[in-house]
Design brief:
The chain has 243 residues and is of the alpha/beta class. It has helices at 16-28, 39-46, 63-72, 104-125, 220-231; strands at residues 8-12, 32-35, 53-57, 80-85, 96-99, 128-137, 143-152, 155-164, 170-172, 182-188, 195-205, 210-217. A hairpin with a 5-residue loop joins β8 and β9.
Length: 243
Amino acid sequence: MTPEMAFECLLVSHDPAVFSTMDRILQDFSIHTNVCPNPSKAANLLADGSTDLIVIDLESEHSSELMHQIFESGMRLKPTILAVSAVDCVIPGVHVILRKPVTPESGAKSLKVAYTRMLRDYRKHTRFALMTPVLATDKNNQIISLIVTNIGEGGVGLTTNINIGEDGVGLTTNEKLPIGSILSFRVPLPGLRSEIYIQARVLWTRQYGAAGCEFVRIPPGDLQVLHAWLESRYRFKKPLIPV
């Protein structure tokens, strides 16, 4: 995303008809567009990893090389790909195919599909910082003092703080949380009076006790509270047209 929290698109085409039509539609969706007629130079624009959407004309010279670079890249989050083609085709890794000739109607319909996917990915991977201490229990009912570092639709980030022994004495620990372990805890969300109950599974760990977790169970009522809280904090430019 750009600093003003607009989705960012790389439009790769040397066809004036594709460019003029898609550029207007992208503006309607409040998507910031970088235009690159030459696919061989587009890889440099992708290097910073801020591109959310690639609209690529498959008739552009070297477009196949660019597609290969995208698929083979080590980007943690690969952008949504909308390919413009003169023929019906299925291309592995391409999310939306737009047939030529591109019209305002067909372009808007295809971009709506791509936009829905971008929005889903944005919500899935966006996390909000919390830095909230909680007491969690594991499957053995051992109490573990943790800090919830962030939360989002995709899960929570944790870091170990203090282990609480059976005698109630706090013991400092630098041990990592076991991968696969399930932790249960209640966490307050800023601005809300109540806490939500979470069961989360540890997916990965890092040095100094940091861990990433996926949700295993959140009661339906608490899940609604979490979704509403997250929606109130998402910041991205809304489309100028109904989506």
